[in-house]
From TrEMBL:
Record's keyword terms, sorted: Dioxygenase, Iron, Metal-binding, Oxidoreductase, Vitamin C
Protein's UniProt name: Fe2OG dioxygenase domain-containing protein
Protein's GO biological process: cellular response to hypoxia
Cited InterPro entries: HIF_prolyl_hydroxylases (IPR051559), Oxoglu/Fe-dep_dioxygenase_dom (IPR005123), Pro_4_hyd_alph (IPR006620), Pro_4_hyd_alph_FE2OG_OXY (IPR044862)
Entry cofactors: L-ascorbate
Domain Fe2OG dioxygenase positions: 106-200
GO molecular function, one term: ferrous iron binding
Length: 205
């Protein structure tokens, strides 16, 4: 087994980001972690602690069902062992990206997202107009046995055309937040994920 500092997966992601600005790794997360995170997300949903997601930030924040239909819960350190394990892995990735790509990533913010059947997130970029700290986006999927005909793909609008990623449990998508328009297509079943952002220090106003 590789020591954490040697994890080849993290280097693959760094290489992809350097070469083309995005990376998709299937089976990136251990199955036990995926199961624990999915269970936590469902339990929080059942307890009513997911809130309808907003669009924008600060004074421009808006709830827009016509834009995105997911409900979310922000992760806090110490909230559960599964969440802490995920945050620890993300911190390893942050350090690796800084070491290999000199990105100067300072912190990570991340939320569970639950898209009910039919929900979608229209084409967007993740960097806010009034806050440019988000540098790298990371989405982890928590869905067992996803089938393509169930919809729910993450559609990346790349310079060379569209590329669809299925939200299969354990998969991880990483991309440069400022550069890549993307959208979540509606699905016929519930769709669980973690969406997060590595941030640089910056002048938010
Ligand atoms: O869940 C996904 O595949 C992407 C979600 C997304 O684009 C976002 O939350 O900004
Ligand atoms: Fe996004």
């Amino acid at each position: 087994m590789n020591a954490p500092s040697e994890r080849p997966l993290l280097s693959l992601i760094a290489d992809d980001l350097a070469v083309r600005g995005w990376s998709h790794q299937s089976l990136a997360l251990p199955p036990g972690l995926v199961a624990g995170l999915a269970e936590e997300c469902r339990a929080r949903a059942a307890a009513g602690s997911l809130a309808p997601a907003a669009v924008g930030r600060g004074e421009t924040v808006q709830l827009r069902e016509g834009v995105r239909g997911d409900s979310i819960h922000w992760l806090e350190p110490g909230q559960s062992s599964a969440s802490d394990a995920y945050l620890a892995l993300m911190d390893e990735l942050r350090q690796r990206l800084n070491r290999e790509l000199y990105l100067g990533l300072e912190d990570f913010e991340c939320h569970f997202a639950l898209y009910p059947p039919g929900a979608f997130y229209r084409k967007h970029v993740d960097r806010f107009r009034d806050d440019d700290r988000r540098a790298v986006s990371v989405v982890a999927y928590l869905n067992d046995d996803w089938r393509e005909e169930q919809g729910g793909a993450l559609r990346l609008h790349l310079a060379e055309g569209e590329h669809d990623v299925q939200p299969e449990g354990g998969g991880l998508v990483v991309f440069l937040s400022a550069d890549l328009p993307h959208e979540v297509l509606p699905a016929s079943r519930e769709r669980l994920s973690l969406a997060g952002w590595f941030r640089r220090r910056g002048a938010a106003y």
